[in-house]
Amino acid sequence: MSFFTTGMSKKTLLSGIQPSGQLHIGNYFGAIKQFIDMQDSHNAIYMIVDYHALNTIQDKKVMSENILNLAIDYLALGLDPKKSIIFKQSDVSEHTELCWIFDTITTMPFLMRAHAYKDAEANNKEISVGKFNYPMLMAADILLYDTDIVPVGQDQRQHVEYSRDTAQKFNNVFKKDVFKLPEPKILDAVAIVPGTDGRKMSKSYGNTIPLFATDEEIEKAVMGIVTDSSGDVPQNVYAIHRLLKSEAELKDLYENSKGKYKVLKEALIIDMKAFVKPLREKREQLAKDIDYVLDILKEGGKRAKIKAEKKMEQVKSAIGVDLY
Ligand code: AMP
Ligand code: TRP
Asked: Quick check: 89 pLDDT over 90?
């Protein structure tokens, strides 16, 4: 191994996804694709953030199934435990411990500026303390590992900014540079992947194309893409098609089929099926060996824990609770 590829010279990259249900192609192109592409060039850490999901999933069976499913998804998509640490948040109790410490230096008005909180308030939704506090747990996730880069979709930008602010606040209050300031990594082209209705693809809008969809699900989702756009090119079809093929590859098709929305949708269905098939097959293989998947999570948790414990020693020393 050359000097430049040793662990020492690589930056640390960390991200996480909540085990809150089926992944969709917005998750993939907005976030997970970057996770996979950056495994070789970074010390990468990928989490299943189950304690974040506990805000919405409060059913033992659903929680366990979702965690396992997301672990299988990660591996099927190409996250590699030989290259990256893959673990679940609840295996490393330092996350919640550090979250508490951050709570003590964070004000309510600061957290009230969060988009997620403001949206919930605007909709008169009852908000749990856990949801209110969501950005602090996420800050702990990120800061525990001296993370340099956080690859996420646009909707998570503010959360990464909360982490930066919290790192700075801690370093100022306790007069010690314990935490590094992380940077978000958001790819402009896919920052907001549109759904079948042209709005942001999101489970809560019911406009998704599931990442491991069956052929029938793909047909149904693509045929359901809203095409009342003006002009010859159905923008909502094209925007999704562009995720799978380059502008040059699509040029002839879209020029020769102006206004023929059905033809274009059928072409998208073929491309989407070709994209999803190998992923679905890999997933089916992995789902047959649950013990293998669980072992990867367990091992990842142990590796993450060692790092988190070291960081917490620095934190405890900085705040003055380390008497022996
Ligand atoms: P979520 O399941 O919404 O918590 O999202 C998991 C990851 O996928 C986060 O990094 C999001 O920013 C990203 N993501 C979710 N939906 C989209 C979308 N429509 N476009 C781009 N990125 C997305
Ligand atoms: N809030 C992120 C989401 O909903 C999930 C998340 C939790 C996360 N902790 C993180 C993402 C740390 C990146 C880094 O998508």
From this structure: yes
CA of 313 to the centre of ligand 1 (A): 33
* 83 & 105 share domain: yes
**Cα separations (Å) of 208 from 9, 66, 198?**
39, 18, 10
Atom 21 of ligand 1 has which residue's CA nearest to it?
30
Q: What is the pLDDT of residues 189-242, one digit of tens each?
A: 777 899 999 999 998 899 999 999 999 999 999 999 998 766 788 999 999 999
User: When comparing pLDDT for 9 and 99, which is higher?
Assistant: 99
| Residue at 1 is within a domain | no
What does pTM read for this prediction?
Answer: 0.93
Residue nearest to atom 14 of ligand 2 (CA): 15
Number of domains in the chain: 2
Same domain, 73 and 103: yes
Distance CA 212, CA 227 (A): 24
Name the residue of 23, 27, 240 to mutate for ligand 1: max ligand atoms within 8 A of Cβ: 27
* Domain ranges, residue 233: 203-283
Residues 296, 149 share a domain: yes
State if residue 300 touches ligand 1 by the CB under 6 angstroms criterion. no
Together in a domain, 181 and 314: yes
Mutate to test the pocket of ligand 2, among 42, 66, 141 (most ligand atoms within 8 A of CB): 141
Give the Cα separation of 260 and 315 in Å (integer). Answer: 61
Largest CA distance in the chain: 75
Task: Specify the DSSP element, H or E, that contains 17.
Answer: strand 11-17
pLDDT at 170 over 70: yes
- Are residues 154 and 261 both part of a single domain? no
Which CATH number fits the domain that encloses residue 163? 3.40.50.620
Indicate whether residue 15 lines ligand 2 (CB < 6 A).
yes
Q: Output the CA 26–ligand 1 centroid distance in Å.
A: 6
The kind and range of the H/E element at 184 are strand 183-185
Closest listed ligand to the CA of 136: 2
Give tens-digit pLDDT for 265-319: 999 999 999 999 999 999 999 999 999 999 999 999 999 999 999 999 999 999 9
The residues facing 86 across adjacent strands are 46
Residue 4 lies inside a defined structural domain of this protein: no
My answer on whether 97 and 155 are in the same domain is: yes
